[in-house]
Amino acid sequence: MRGLLIDGFHPDRPHRLSPRVGLRPEPFGALAYHFDNRRLVFLKSPQLVALVRSLEEHDTLAGAVAQVIDSSDVTAERGDRLRRNYLKALASLAEAEVICER
Q: Is 17 exposed, middle or buried (0-12, 13-18, 19+ CB in 10 A)?
């Protein structure tokens, strides 16, 4: 998580899909629509969609990411790269208010 210091984004805290967001499945992943700010956000992979949907099941956002990485059959180097990419994507989703702390 080093190098990922974004105001208001804390991977060490529990998160969830915002209750004000609807997800519509798409072949590329999903569209997320925020009913309050009317923002439309693309989730660009089915794996990211699954991760976002599973956030509620984990004690921390970082724990959810770790579980996804650990259950994948990837090298340590690839796992580190995936972790950085997931955290960057989730930080963007937090900024767009698609996910929030619970």
A: buried
> Using an 8 Å Cβ cutoff, are 64 and 54 in contact?
yes
Model confidence pLDDT, tens digit, residues 11-25: 999 999 999 999 999
Distance in angstroms (rounded) separating the CA atoms of residues 13 and 11: 5
CA–CA separation, 61 and 35 (whole Å): 23
- Give the length of the chain: 102
Helix or strand or coil: residue 42?
strand
What is the pLDDT at residue 1? 43
Residue spans per domain, the chain: 15-101
Residue that has been written with the tokens 């923002």 in this structure: 39
